[in-house]
Amino acid sequence: MNKRRKSEKPVRLSRIQEMNRSRIIEAALGEFSRFGYSGATIDKISAAAGMSKSNLLYYFSSKSDVYEAVLEHILDVWLAPLRTLDPEGDPASELAAYIRQKMRMSAERPEASRLFANEVMQGAPQIRDVLEKDLKNLVTEKSKVIEQWIEAGKIRKIVPVHLIFTIWATTQHYADFDSQIRALTGTGLEDPAFFEEAENAVCSLILNGLGLEWPRKQTTS
Amino acid sequence: MNKRRKSEKPVRLSRIQEMNRSRIIEAALGEFSRFGYSGATIDKISAAAGMSKSNLLYYFSSKSDVYEAVLEHILDVWLAPLRTLDPEGDPASELAAYIRQKMRMSAERPEASRLFANEVMQGAPQIRDVLEKDLKNLVTEKSKVIEQWIEAGKIRKIVPVHLIFTIWATTQHYADFDSQIRALTGTGLEDPAFFEEAENAVCSLILNGLGLEWPRKQTTS
DNA sequence: TGAAGACTTGACCAATCGGTCAAGATGAGA
DNA sequence: TCTCATCTTGACCGATTGGTCAAGTCTTCA
């Protein structure tokens, strides 16, 4: 079970290990996000990864071990956009950029969004620590940025965390509720026209809601 | 298996049947919303309902039968608020009332919200028909209402479905992501102060985003 | 080339799950 | 009180699932 090489070489992974672990994680992301933790089976994950169940269990000691690896693999990239919110930039373009990044992630990695939503909806048993420490620090920090913008009179008054929640909710909604959106509109974020329409709607609503002029890209008049 | 009484008395349920079915549905709602369809077991549902597994299967023929009953039981009440959107009323108070209703439902019935989210995230296999017919008709109808408000110059221009999506996303977020919100803020919608703070933030952001003055309740100046 | 690892697999196991069945307990109407 | 339909349960079954194990195959490197 993943013994280290002799002479204590610490955590170096062979090429085969690296490839197989990433194939497993990719396959597991698909299964976990579609069927939830209980609904996903290591049989189907291993099949989707193109290997036997036994082989998957050679790389990960258990199902929950795979699950944790998938979550960890996703968390960083998932929370990254918020880190880029710059106190020095002007609110309109900073917030618009943040919303656009989140929308792009919903379009490009909807499974990641759904996996995250699934985990949180079940009480976040696996990532509670990350939420209470890393994410909380990050949100506190960025809340202060928003607070400063408010005090400087640059944006309308609002309790910062709720602005953050609103941005998360609206952007992730297009990934998490994709099937509902598709049932209602016949299309989804993978359609460039629909993507732009959604992005414009969310950006304009939130930025105008904050009393900002929204720096629309190709506005001519 | 729920045979009708002799002489074709149609669908009358005995008091015992009615009570037990509702207890089962209530217990099943809790389990399904917490653990998803696969994660919930009829053993635990029946235990939560205070009866044996066999007895549960006397009232419902299968696990999926229970699940369908729970969804049906919830769908009407869940989609009701949107129906109340009145074309004759003024946009600000109509939309504010709608948002408040949705927020109250997120506070009072978060399990219903999570169950619905779970079902949709897994591709809405059970309620696809309802979404594509009833809900689509409803959304189309209410989109026209919003469109008329726009054409009358009462609210800012926006593609109506995205306004509806935004309201759904923001309000349901407080139920679906409750554990994340609790990890970040230390409280949730069951706290009256937090509820009002959230409601104010969502209302003001969306209404201001539409160019509306928001009819705040206890504004004195 | 030839070990000594690393890698891969099918056979197998125990636990859990959804669901059946026969038999007993309870209730309501004559 | 008697009777019959309704209600309730524990014992049981087959299928699936997470996980183990021994044995075989492939890499790597001296």
UniProtKB/TrEMBL annotation, chains A, B:
Q: Which GO terms describe its molecular function?
A: DNA binding
Q: Does the keyword DNA-binding apply?
A: yes
* Keyword annotations: DNA-binding
- Which Pfam family, giving just one, matches this sequence? TetR_N
Residue ranges of DNA binding: 41-60
Q: Where is the HTH tetR-type domain?
A: 18-78
Which domain of life does this protein belong to? Bacteria
Q: What is this protein called?
A: TetR family transcriptional regulator
Question: What organism is this sequence from?
Answer: Roseibium aggregatum
InterPro entries registered for this protein in UniProt: Homeodomain-like_sf (IPR009057), HTH-type_TetR-like_transc_reg (IPR050109), HTH_TetR (IPR001647), Tet_transcr_reg_TetR-rel_C_sf (IPR036271), Tscrpt_reg_YcdC_C (IPR013573)
Any signal peptide, and if so, which residues? none
According to its UniProt entry, the protein's GO biological process terms are: negative regulation of DNA-templated transcription
